[in-house]
Amino acid sequence: MPSPFVTRVKLALAFKGLSFEDVEEDLRSKSELLLVSNPVHKKVPVLIHNGKPICESLVILEYIDEAFSGTGPSLLPADPHHRAVARFWAAYIHEQVVAQFVQSIRGKTEEDKAEGIKQTFAAMETLEGALRDCSKGEGLFFGGGSVGLVDVLLGSLLSWLKAAEVISGTKYFDPVKTPLLAAWMERFSELAKAALPEVERVLEFSNMLAMAAAAAAAAASEN
Amino acid sequence: MPSPFVTRVKLALAFKGLSFEDVEEDLRSKSELLLVSNPVHKKVPVLIHNGKPICESLVILEYIDEAFSGTGPSLLPADPHHRAVARFWAAYIHEQVVAQFVQSIRGKTEEDKAEGIKQTFAAMETLEGALRDCSKGEGLFFGGGSVGLVDVLLGSLLSWLKAAEVISGTKYFDPVKTPLLAAWMERFSELAKAALPEVERVLEFSNMLAMAAAAAAAAASEN
């Protein structure tokens, strides 16, 4: 499933150079393993390490950074203030940008969707400023010279952003207004190609969801 | 202001034995300092340390634990798996329990509010199980033998929970079903007395909000 939350974990494992077994989950018929591993939320992703499950994508990312601190680059910098800045932008994307983006796709009315696109657009300008500050000097990634937590969070949305632009026929950002971010998108997409879901796969998945919703609506209207 | 998000930070600073200057903020007329320190969200709490602002309560808690790792007890345990478990329950309270609790107070209809109370009630039973697991052996706090991140998160809601019970005339948890949690509430309230807002102050604040909402509704209906 091309879930951005799952993609976050795959990106982090890839950047750390850690190998893993990818167990696909059918969310229409959840496995016993998922229900036992994440009894509270019953959601993917779950990382099972040393036989113990870790749930919730942001918690998993921190866990990967701490449990494998000796392997590969770190997702978070060493300095407490820099760590706080990275966690601030990670929370911004997790709590705000994702919701605005979902509204742009699944808003109940066309007005709702337009508002979601507008807000995502504004968020991209805010993130342009963050990228300018975070990448001072080296200027390549939110993590500075290498990929960090914020790159993973925003990067996990890239395939969805591109798919949403295809579906809506609207741009979600303006390269002229956010040149650093536009260059970052190119750079990150290239670097993380293997761990990012293909845009076509996201489009197929979106079509499937839309058809399922239409079928459910049709079934409901028949009763 | 008796904000639970501000209380989180005050609790953490108190448990670490750190002194701080408490600058009250009038949210109807935000200070230049707040707007400059937290330009993205313009919200409290903000912790200013070494002249640099840290925003977002969960980010601040992690920062306090990391920047003052040599001072007082740690909010998070040392083992990566135990840290992940604590962060899981912290996120559960931050993202889910707070929303359910807010719904129980501010739900648009009486049905909405009743649903919020029901969900908060169920969450308390889930947290009873978490407390049983987290406090194995020592059995006093979510942090084990001493207060940790989860205690701070849930503890910051205690005065509001008591105030909500007064306002709604309904119990938000049943000590018979959640005996460990009930004992924890007593224990935590006693330990953290100085850092928790008084229930009367929360009630006054809620009355003020309700009156402001009623006045706004009356003004709107006059146009």
From TrEMBL, chains A, B:
It comes from Brachypodium distachyon. One of its GO terms (cellular component) is cytoplasm. Residues 1-72 form the GST N-terminal domain. Gene3D superfamilies: 1.20.1050.10, Glutaredoxin. Is involved in the conjugation of reduced glutathione to a wide number of exogenous and endogenous hydrophobic electrophiles. The keyword Transferase applies. One of its GO terms (molecular function) is glutathione transferase activity. Keywords: Cytoplasm, Transferase. It is found in: Cytoplasm, Cytosol. InterPro entries: Glutathione-S-Trfase_C-like, Glutathione-S-Trfase_C_sf, Glutathione_S-Trfase, Glutathione_S-Trfase_N, GST_C_Tau, Omega/Tau-like, Thioredoxin-like_sf. It holds the Pfam family GST_N. The keyword Transferase applies. GO terms for biological process: glutathione metabolic process. This is Glutathione S-transferase. Coiled coil: none annotated. Residues 79-205 form the GST C-terminal domain. Its EC number is 2.5.1.18. Belongs to the GST superfamily. Tau family. It catalyses: RX + glutathione = an S-substituted glutathione + a halide anion + H(+). It is an enzyme of class 2 (transferase).
